[in-house]
Amino acid sequence: MRRWVRIYDAIGEVGLKHQKPKRNYLDKLAMIDRVLNGESLNEVAISHGIQSDLLSKWVKIYEH
């Protein structure tokens, strides 16, 4: 429940929907850059309304 509240606070009602807008590669790169520059993976994920494991996957692909 707390995670949902944080997502709602960060991006609003759209963050609670199952069908979230698709992220383009520039959005993904911006999130990856934030993580690589030291921000918490969880905080970045919540601020964009995505699961942290998805963001972790993108970071690993980028680093590979």
Write the layout of secondary structure elements.
Elements: H1 2-11, H2 25-36, H3 41-48, H4 52-63
Apparent shape:
globular
Number of domains: 1
Structural class: mainly alpha
* Low-confidence blocks of residues: none
Largest sheet: none
Q: Give helix % range.
A: 55-70%
Report the top-level CATH class: Mainly Alpha
- Taken as a percent bin, the fraction of beta residues is under 5%
Q: Using the CA coordinates, give the radius of gyration.
A: 12 Å
CATH-assigned fold name: Arc Repressor Mutant, subunit A
How far is it from the N-terminal to the C-terminal residue, by CA? 34 Å
Average pLDDT for all residues? 83
Q: Number of helical segments?
A: 4
Q: What keywords describe this structure?
A:
Arc Repressor Mutant, subunit A, 64 residues, mainly alpha, globular, 66% helix
How would you describe this structure to a colleague?
With 64 residues, the chain is mainly alpha-helical. The chain has one domain: Arc Repressor Mutant, subunit A (Orthogonal Bundle). It is 66% helix and 0% strand. It contains four helices and no strands. It has helices at 2-11, 25-36, 41-48, 52-63. Helix 2 (25-36) packs across helix 4 and helix 3 crosses helix 4.
